[in-house]
Amino acid sequence: MPKPPAASAPKGVRLQKAMADAGLGARRDCEEMIAAGRVKVNGRVVTTLPCFVSPTTDVVELDDEVIELPVPEDSAGQAGESKAATRPRSLIYVLINKPKGVITTTSDPEGRRNVLDLVPVSLRRDERLFPVGRLDSDSTGLLLITNDGELAYQLTHPKFGIAKEYRVLTSGLASDEQLKKLRAGMYLVNPAMDGTKTSKRASMESVRIIKRFVDRARGDRTMLSVTLREGQNREIRRMLARVGLKVRELERVAIGPLRAGDLKPGQAKLLGKKDVEKLRAAVLGD
Fold it and tell me: What is the pLDDT of residue 72?
């Protein structure tokens, strides 16, 4: 009896990967854009995945604006593209120390200061850069800005589990019992895009007390060190609130092997080859 023909492999690249490679954000961000109905392929809205596109023949739009998709090197010959047209983009990696009040987005209709404003104009003039992950407006510390969609995906996806370390100042004197509950983990409720709610387990890789401050005038405080390998929206603040601790200050002090060093709040620095290699090694080694 003859065997049925094997299913042909999908042609093209995954839509979210093509968008990430175009510098629109990390893959998870692009998936959210697709699910929200903001993306069209050849004039039709796409909301479900997987979806495969050809960068050389398909027209992809985000918010009705056509996206220029980079052409994979292995398809350049078939598409008849010139070497100049398919030359790989220059990948840029900028580490910033985000101050309080700056929002983690690439633009804001209200005109508020965003993280791209901290990147030198010379680095963002010709490339579409985006932040890897998020820090809320009230939080400070390290944030990576890049146009490397693949590395951004690896640094944010839970399966790679890149460690991120935080210093957290809370009101009150944290107890051993509270820390025990934080280490055990808990479920947090998150709203979905369709209006429903889902619960997902949150846990801290580690949490320890750095120092307790007994202060009758300003109120007692505790400085904590917290390490996460997977972060939900405002996860640290929500977990601490669940055990009765209010966050007064929250700073991200490390992303994998990267630390601030002499990088002051509001400053940015272009990462060199060694730092990028350390990041890639952390992705592969963790």
Answer: 66
